[in-house]
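Justification of resources, computational component.

The compute hours requested in this renewal are based largely on the per-chain cost of generating structure records like the one below. Each record pairs the submitted sequence with a full structure-token output. That output is archived, and it is also reused by downstream analysis tasks.
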Amino acid sequence: MLSSINLIVTLISIICIINCVICNQVFTNSFYVHLNGPYGSDVAHRIAQKHGFINLGPLLNSPDEFHFLHRALPHSRTKRSISHTRKLKNDPQVDFAVQQSGFKRVKRGYRQLILGPEHLSLNQEPSDPYFPYQWYLKNVGQNGGKPKLDLNVEAAWAQGYTGKNVTTAIMDDGVDYMHPDLRENYNAKASYDFSSNDPYPYPRYTDDWFNSHGTRCAGEVSAKRDNGICGVGVAYDSKVAGIRMLDQPYMTDLIEANSMGHEPDLIDIYSASWGPTDDGKTVDGPRNATMRAIVRGVNEGRKGLGNIYVWASGDGGQDDDCNCDGYAASMWTISINSAINNGENAHYDESCSSTLASTFSNGAKDPHTGVATTDLYGKCTKTHSGTSAAAPEAAGVFALALEANPNLTWRDIQHLTVLTSKRNSLYDSKNRFHWNMNGVGLEFNHLFGFGVLDAGAMVALASIWKTVPPRYHCEAGSIQKTIPIPSNESLFLHIDTSSCAGKDSEVNYIEHIQAVITLNSTRRGDVTLFLISPMGTRSMILSRRPKDDDSRDGFTKWPFMTTHTWSENPRGRWTLEIKFDGDKPQKGFFKEWTLMVHGAKEPPYKDLPVLDKNSKLAIVKKAHELAFTH
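The structure output for this chain reads:
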């Protein structure tokens, strides 16, 4: 099974590189070096020194893969340095070496034009002066919000869960670990600065406080309670680690990989509020080493239980689709969207079928009613926003669940998210995406996934949870044929599948579905894709992207993912619908569609007691029993 996982990782990483549109390719002064034996760090240091490089250390603790840096080269240039690469390749102990390309990764939710940092003047309030502003923790209707539209954290706290013995790593621009609301919960052993290569991930100073992003996210998770400073974190007794990796002109695969693979047995949750550029035309995702780090994390991290990777779904708004972001759309991450305090989607929210759930960002009527949290240099803010703010809130809820049941696997967290998230008062302000029900009775929304996280319900179910059966993946069928896409009507394609019945990879209960698709068109942004399951669930796996005017690259084996068919039986006919949605007629060609089914062979919830007959758990268990009976 592991070898097939590695094949998937390699495939997806190659896909992401192929689909990434790089107008002006950039090469950094970093080099990936693979030795021809497991020589270890001492030999790597000698090789680096001999050729004028610095060895920054192994890749993912490997004995034969290393990250070299050459300080005489500029951090970014438009041409490869053939001479430096040749020096390394000619060394008898080097198998091969590759100069690292650079690419952009942007923070989500940071608004450079919003009001600057607020200088908090503490008064005689007993503690947590900003808690009344934390409407996403307790919404009583402040600032025009919808009462009880919140994360229901007080119900989790009342059950005694506050995040103890759980560490969340904030992968960002650094964390102000000297902040009085964070320092008691700071986990120095799990922290590192991959931008400066030292153990101190303190943010780099700028006049505009641009590097406040990570500190704000950290406070949402782990700000201390009842200390009279700022507000309170969702999991206020949990630990927070800082991984500074986002503060350099260009990202590299090696920095991302080492960040996501850093201390996987000390870190439980990795929170990422960044991704490819949210410009509505970029199609990009993790490269090879980064994919390996994530897959290793979910398979081996937390001593085999699997790390939890939480991802902000994106701030590209209705002109973008987060299924074109290979991080947020990954099966191995939990993609989180946001809502504002009256239940609407935020104007910057992207939609896609890979979003699992939602939390909160900013207020509806008052632009200053954002997320109240810690800020740089001991300050506090009420203006943090975007899906950047949403992802750490989810990380905090997951920290509460892990305290309730430390034996939860990464898949258990995803199942708990699906089963306990609530529709509540969430709605699409433009009336585009409605709430629908899938084939086993689970409500979902193209914007909000399975609803807003409910911390009280999640920890209650986590405390009695039984680990789900093993996960399998099945290549359910494939069509490889060049077919013209009509300009004014839909193209329908069908795959009939037994979902590997009778084989070792049999899947009977869906978790994730991937439609791996190759096509091109005269305007990629006008292509829309829908996937219809045998049980009748219709997922929009690609929406119109009006800013994407690509006419050359199209999609090459891009894995469009949907969670909307969660817990359905995959057997039967799957239908792919392709059509153009634009102002002008377009032409295109479909070339390939492979259907990948991921999930369990055995029923995942059969041993769980039903405490509420109206709960999602009760509904899905009943649907599974009926399906099995018939």
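Residues 2-19 form the longest helix (18 residues). The chain is about 20% helix and 25% strand.
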